[in-house]
Amino acid sequence: MTTQPPTPTPTPTQTTTGGRRRTWTRLNPLLRLLILTQLAFNIGFFAVLPFLAEHLGTAIGMAGWMVGFVLGLRTFSQQGLFVVGGALADRYGVRPVVLVGCVLRIAGFLWLGHAEESWAVIGAVLLIGFAAALFSPAVESEVARQAVVWEEAGGGSRTSVLALFTVAGQAGAFVGPLIGALLLEVDFRTVCLTGAGVFVLVLAGHARLLPQHIPGRARVKARGGLRGLARNRRFLALCCAYGAYLLAYNQLYLILPDEVERAAGSQAPLAWLFALSSLLVVTAQLPVTNWAAHRLDLRRSMAAGLLLIAAGFAVVAVARPAGWTGATGLLPAAGFVVLLTLGQMLVAPAARAWVPDLAEDGRLGLYTGALSSVSGLIVLIGSSATGSLLDTGLPPAVPWLVLAAIPVASLLLLPRHSGPRQGRGRGHQPGTARR
């Protein structure tokens, strides 16, 4: 599969659906395949995941602590092992790692659909998580590498490609639960079988379309990568700043439900707030990315996003002492969701686009996986601390103020230089940009 020469860089005004389509049609076939892969991954996954906890508690009869333990195992087997999947992609190539990951995900969903004992559920969940630890960093690292190549060929900002990747993932996360909710009217097994069916289609498509060897991607030895990564202070600093963003984003599931319950008397409005976040990403991610690409380098883009996230927490902190309830009481929570989502639109593509500049030659998969694993560990520790903070009996505004301070403090961790302006694509960057 050859890379087609892209056409000139789009202008900042290409923020409409037409501009999005033009960006899509100018991408090479491999990039389009990988972006559609992200859409399919999330449709299949999120058709099942939102209904797992209820299934474990009612159909399987697990205690609440056990349900939480199983969900935590899934996160660990996925996020914590991203670094393993990334290293394997560097060593053996994208195609075999993605195909094996899809096979394991199919097996995991089939097993989960038929599991009736706790040990079987745990085994299935671990398999489902490890499958993603294989295929996700392989796909993400190749999208990042191809985005750099696209930028250097004059196609435009690498963040535009990564933003399209984010939109595809968010669209899948939005559509998946709708499909799962419809199928749940039959039973949970049908939901799992459908999720497995989606990955069967992904497996078949990749077996046919994904190249055996991707031009410019050299395989490297497995040894030595972690040692260099551990000494890469700029990359580790980026991981910490990205971890601060992920910790803030995870408050959608920890501190926001408490605030919604307080203001509305139930958590029913949460679904609308989550839908608002998804809709913002799907409709505004590319316009925001195009705007930032012509005005901000990667460091400033991340800094602006982190400040927006901090402002979201501050909005609730300022309003919380008033004790508003009802529709008025939900306005600060809605403001928090909007600002957090806008911050995400700036931070996530910029962080992914920055990794190729900091990675060693041939180790982009390892570094892409490490970004998720290190930041995931930060979220695990930070979420535990946040939960403790909520139980201390402090004034209600204090936890929100503390959480607002975290992304602000993380600005000090951002590496000082992020290369040329995102949208110009001049010269080459360290690491994979030279390949």
UniProtKB/TrEMBL annotation:
Keyword rRNA-binding carried by entry: no
Membrane topology label: Multi-pass membrane protein
Recorded coiled-coil stretches: none
An example molecular function term from Gene Ontology annotations: transmembrane transporter activity
Location(s), subcellular: Cell membrane
Residue ranges with Pro residues bias: 1-11
Protein name: MFS transporter
Keyword set includes Transmembrane: yes
Annotated region (Disordered), positions in chain: 1-20
Pfam families given in the database record: MFS_1 (PF07690)
Domain Major facilitator superfamily (MFS) profile: 30-422
GO cellular component terms, A-Z: plasma membrane
Species assigned in the record: Streptomyces phyllanthi
